[in-house]
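Comment thread on ticket #2218

A.B. wrote:
> Attaching the input chain for the structure job we discussed in standup.
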Amino acid sequence: MLIKRKSIEKEESSRPASKPATRKPKFAPVTLSELDGVRYLHFGTEWVQGAMRIRKPDWPELEYAQQMMAWMLWNDAPRHIAQLGLGTGALTKFSYKTFPEAQVTAIELNPSVISICYSMFKLPDNDGRLNVVEMDAMDYVTNPDNHGTLDALQADLYDATARGPVLDTPEFYQACAACLADDGIMTINLFGDHPSYAKNLKAMKFAFAQVIPLPQVHDGNVVAIAFKTRRAIDLEALAERAAQIAADTKLPAKSWIKGLKAALA
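C.D. wrote:
> Ran it. Output below, let me know if you need it in another format.
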């Protein structure tokens, strides 16, 4: 999501800082680029907000997106998976295909992102298992009806400026933790080369019993794994599970074990 690549459309001109705010959210233009069989999503800038290999539309193309599935090391049969920030729908599509018994929910504030995911990124229509909802992620996680309902929660919440997650307070992460079942896990895409990283990590450690950031990938992406309930990290058992994930899904799960070892060293 934070890899730089030129959009096929020019960056939107900066608006005056003095322009009065309105209640209706204003979104940067949704733009696309393509290179070597991969289609990229942008918000009018060179920052990549997601990617899809055109011949493999259900595959999470970017390494950080693959790492966002690291909760699979601890849960091989989730009942409900939610994604905050749709992007190209990579995590939503992969979860929907990989776990046919699971409910999959995606929350996205920008209606144009949802529309382009249907038209250009092969997002399936909503059905009995898949529910893509246009709403604010904060409204979703603070709704008591969602508390205690999720086995896995994935957050990738960036705007066009890519200066850090747009929701980053202790209150936000507390609400995310409340949405998880007791053994639930959250993965969060952070920007390791930006001051927002320390702020987010501090807020997560306030809200969760245990937080493990994996080593940085791409141009600053750091995926953090947050546990609602503290766990003993059995690397030998997790390595066996990683081998099974790699065999079943082709995800590079063995590299996640190396990352965990480095993070815990």
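A.B. wrote:
> Thanks. Noting for the ticket: Helices lie at 63-67, 90-98, 111-120, 137-142, 170-179, 196-207, 235-249, 253-264.
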